[in-house]
Each structure stands twice: as structure tokens, then as C-alpha cells.
């Protein structure tokens, strides 16, 4: 009879449980609800765009500028293919590199790297350079512009660097952000980890039947700052829920959806990166790497170059990034170095970096003919 006097369970609970305890139960329920939803992360683009080309693991997206496109040359952004989603370049309305370039009047294109299927397990670095060239050619075809600006983020940075040294005639300016070039220029945990026997990395690829599971790469990144990724961020979420801080809760959910979302990489591509980039430091050795028989020689780069690095970047310490200037033929006055105040991800998509440092990049590009 007692239960019949109440419309629902909530009214009954209010009668027997103190309000403070009820409120705490709701907060606890929300906390675990958020974490459960994040077990299946999902992420997407925030700026309207069109898929204009697709081949193998490449999907080329065009982000039409809603305002007048006043800049002479288009911009092609190469996000990293490091197990995460490529929307790093267009992460949120407030944190979008695409929108920064839009504000300066640029026509913007982004390479979206798709999760590899078994069909593409044997794609290597040469294939990704070929796919990059396919993207560049499609941009050139659509715009009628012979030379474009090429922006490489993290892994996409050394990829853009290799591409530029092989196809300098197609690139007006190379912009490289938080991307390692000389692994011996400064110590870093990722370089230390790469010194494990090659058989270890081959084992990881074998577990994926020829594919490298991005969850292993993510695990490696997390272990570099274990306390942050396994303890502190969850403490912050609980604090924000306690304080009803909806803005920070939304930011947490958005970031975790991006960060925890992982993809498969072609095993050959991954193993070639470990061997050539991190173990043997071959970008600093002219001709040590070959792409379809053509030697990779950074001295072939003579266009204006912008190098960005984060002062707090533990993944790519600034000396590893800025070392590029020592291996190219670009005159010293045409090499711009920008040191951000952030870390690795902050340099690529942090609010402050996008507002200040990437705006400076755009100001420099306005001077390039």
C-alpha cells in the first residue's frame, strides 16, 4: 500500500533518503554513465566538407570557404596516421585548424587516413607518399594552381617533408608542426621505446594479422604519462561533475571520444616507420631511404619552411623538430621557427596555439608569392 501512494520511485526515495545523498547518487550515476559511453568512442568533423577523392586508405576532403577565397594558393593538411582520427585538423568549432586557414581566405583540403583493412596491410611509406601525391594532384587539378601550401601535423609532418623533397616543384611552402626529423637531436620516451628489438614490433603486427592495432600505439602514448591518463583525468572529471561544471565535462567527453578512438595501420607502414624514422634516423642521412627507387634527400627542399614545436612536447621535443633547418637547402631567412607554449597535442589543436601561433603561420604565408 505504501508504494501505491507515490507516483514513482523518485518520490519514495526522497522520503527515506536525504537530499544530499540523492544528489550524490545522481552524480555517481552520471560519472559512470559517461565512462561507459566512452567505451565506444566516436568522433566526426565539425566544419562542412565534401569527399572529393578516395583511394585505398586515403579520403580527400574539401572544406569550402564560406567567405571569399582571397588567398592565392590552396592549403593541403596532412594529419597524422598514428592510430587516431584525422579530424585532429578540424576537432571542434573552437579548435579547428581548418577554420584558422579559412579566416585568412584559404581554400582548404585535408587528407583523411582511413583505418586499414587486411587488403591494405602491405602498404608502406612509399604508398603513403604516392597517396599524398594523388591528393596533391587532385587539389592542383581542381584549383589550377601549380604550387600549393603543404601542412604536416606530427607524423604527417615528416611525411610532408619526405614528399616535399621528392616533389619540390609542387610545393610553395612546407609547414611542419610537432614532427620529428632528427631523433638524435634530443632524447624522448618514444625514441627510447623504439629501441626495443624489431621482433617486438613484428609481434604486435602479427597479432593483427599484418595490421598494427592503434590501441597498442595509444597504450604507448598513455604510458609516457601514466598518472595523467590512468588517474588524474578521471579525478578531474569527478571534480567537474561535483561542481556541475558542464563546459569542462563537455570538453572532457569530446577529447576522450577523439583520443580513445583508434584505427588500424598497415603493418608494413608501421614497421618501416619504426626502422627508418625512429631506429636508424634515416631522414638525416641523404639517400638512406628510397621511395620508389628515388633517394630521400632533404637537401632537395629549397622552398620557404615553417617549423613549429611545443615547449612542453614530450613526444617530439623541439630540437627534434627544429633540426630540419640543418638538412635543407632553404636559405636561413626563409626558415621560420615557432615555439609554442603547449605540448604535443596543444601545438596541433590547442585553443591558444590556434589563436596565436597558427595565426602567425598564416601571416607568414601571406608573404609567399
UniProtKB/TrEMBL annotation:
SUPFAM superfamilies referenced in this protein's UniProt entry, alphabetically: alpha/beta-Hydrolases
Name of the protein in question: Polyhydroxyalkanoic acid synthase
Signal peptide start-end: none
Pfam families xref list: DUF3141
Source organism superkingdom: Bacteria
InterPro entries the record matches: AB_hydrolase_fold (IPR029058), DUF3141 (IPR024501), PHA/PHB_synthase (IPR051321)
Amino acid at each position: 500500500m505504501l508504494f501505491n501512494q507515490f507516483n514513482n520511485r523518485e518520490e519514495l526515495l526522497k522520503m527515506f533518503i536525504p537530499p544530499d545523498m540523492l544528489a550524490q547518487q545522481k552524480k555517481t550515476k552520471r560519472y559512470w554513465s559517461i565512462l561507459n559511453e566512452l567505451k565506444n568512442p566516436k568522433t566526426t568533423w565539425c566544419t562542412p566538407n565534401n569527399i572529393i577523392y578516395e583511394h585505398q586508405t586515403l579520403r580527400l576532403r574539401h572544406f569550402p570557404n564560406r567567405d571569399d577565397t582571397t588567398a592565392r594558393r590552396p592549403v593541403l593538411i596532412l594529419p597524422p596516421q598514428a592510430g587516431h582520427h584525422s579530424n585532429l585538423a578540424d576537432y571542434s568549432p573552437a579548435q579547428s585548424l581548418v577554420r584558422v586557414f579559412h579566416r585568412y581566405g584559404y581554400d582548404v583540403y585535408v587528407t583523411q587516413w582511413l583505418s586499414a583493412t587486411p587488403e591494405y596491410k602491405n602498404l608502406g611509406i612509399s604508398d603513403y607518399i604516392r597517396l599524398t601525391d594523388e591528393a596533391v594532384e587532385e587539389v592542383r587539378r581542381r584549383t589550377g594552381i601549380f604550387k600549393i601550401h603543404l601542412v604536416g601535423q606530427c607524423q604527417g609532418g615528416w611525411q610532408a617533408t619526405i614528399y616535399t623533397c621528392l616533389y619540390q616543384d609542387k610545393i610553395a611552402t612546407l609547414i611542419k608542426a610537432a614532427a620529428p626529423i632528427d631523433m638524435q637531436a634530443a632524447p624522448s620516451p618514444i625514441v627510447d621505446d623504439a629501441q626495443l628489438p624489431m621482433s617486438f614490433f613484428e609481434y604486435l603486427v602479427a597479432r593483427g594479422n599484418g595490421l598494427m592495432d592503434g590501441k597498442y600505439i595509444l597504450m604507448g602514448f598513455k604510458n609516457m604519462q601514466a598518472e595523467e591518463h590512468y588517474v588524474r583525468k578521471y579525478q578531474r572529471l569527478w571534480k567537474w561533475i561535483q561542481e556541475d561544471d558542464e563546459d569542462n565535462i563537455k570538453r572532457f567527453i569530446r577529447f576522450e571520444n577523439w583520443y580513445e578512438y583508434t584505427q588500424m595501420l598497415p603493418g608494413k607502414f608501421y614497421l618501416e616507420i619504426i626502422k627508418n624514422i625512429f631506429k636508424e634516423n634515416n631522414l638525416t642521412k641523404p639517400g638512406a631511404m628510397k621511395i620508389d627507387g628515388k633517394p630521400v634527400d632533404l637537401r632537395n627542399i629549397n622552398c620557404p619552411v615553417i617549423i613549429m614545436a611545443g615547449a612542453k612536447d614530450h613526444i617530439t621535443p623541439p630540437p627534434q623538430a627544429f633540426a630540419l633547418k640543418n638538412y635543407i637547402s632553404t636559405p636561413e631567412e626563409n626558415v621560420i621557427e615557432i615555439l609554442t607554449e603547449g605540448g604535443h597535442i596543444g601545438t596541433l589543436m590547442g585553443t591558444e596555439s590556434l589563436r596565436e601561433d597558427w595565426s602567425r603561420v598564416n601571416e607568414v604565408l601571406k608573404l609567399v608569392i
